[in-house]
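Sequence in, structure out. Go.
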Amino acid sequence: MQRYVVSRLLLAIPTLLGITMLTFIGLRVFMPSSVVDLLVGEYGAKDEQLKQQLRDELGLSSSVPVQYVKWMGEILRGDLGKSLHSGRPVTEEMRHRVPVSLELGLWGLLTALVTSIPLGVIAAVKQDSWPDYGLRSLAILLNAVPGFWLAILVITFGSIWFNWAPPIKFKYLTEDPWAHLKIMLLPAILIGITPSGGLVRLVRTQMLEVLREDYIRTARAKGLNERVIMYRHALRNTLIPVVTVIGVSLPGLIAGTVIFEQIFIIPGMGRYLVQSVNTLDYPVIQATNLVFASLLVFSVLLVDISYAFIDPRIRFR
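Output:
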């Protein structure tokens, strides 16, 4: 197990390195405009001396490879740079924003799991009956309806019909736990709605395959309780592909919170990324992409390791 984990971590290094290179080169080379053009504005567009002065101050006057090597050196020292607009260290901003986005994404994932796994099991057990048809239709509907659209409807009709609106001022968990929960609960539920539709269908399909296996027939022939067969034997083997989908989709869930962070004014990484893209804040864009890529790589690694705990037959060398 240790050798496997170490080898996967070593393989993650070139993956993250490639992502940083693509992000860095894309911002510096392929963007139609630069942050300097935005800073000088329309009136300073023809003032080359002012533009060169800004490049020198922002460290953009050297070549792209030199800038990249310098940035990588700062990352190895734990420094993600400073915002080109606010001048604040990106590491300090990330320290507050990463936990918020992680919490929101994990709450959304928990919502999807709590609803999809029981519904998928019920649909499989009640195959080709009215509950099965109804749950499959619901799953398709949930898959088709965008969560952010529902969020807009909830806020719009909540304010019209119930004189309700989400809190404008964000409260951290350490400041006011109850107020923090009230802020995070609704967007977390809405985030989990869309993936829950696909998970219901996946759990149902996998559950039906497992229920046709010989060891399930043997367990029933031995007179085991049906609930024990379903949850201890069938559901446990059903969860292996489900865990794969969850692990791969977790970074997407966290990254997808950007729309909900904008709608509910939540100071997470997604909102930070949108603001930085609008202003071409290079260090912030690079740092957020690096964080999202790291989450994806390590979540896939955790998924692979979790197989051994779900299915004892799986061993890593």
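Check: The mean pLDDT is 80. The two ends are 6 Å apart (CA to CA).
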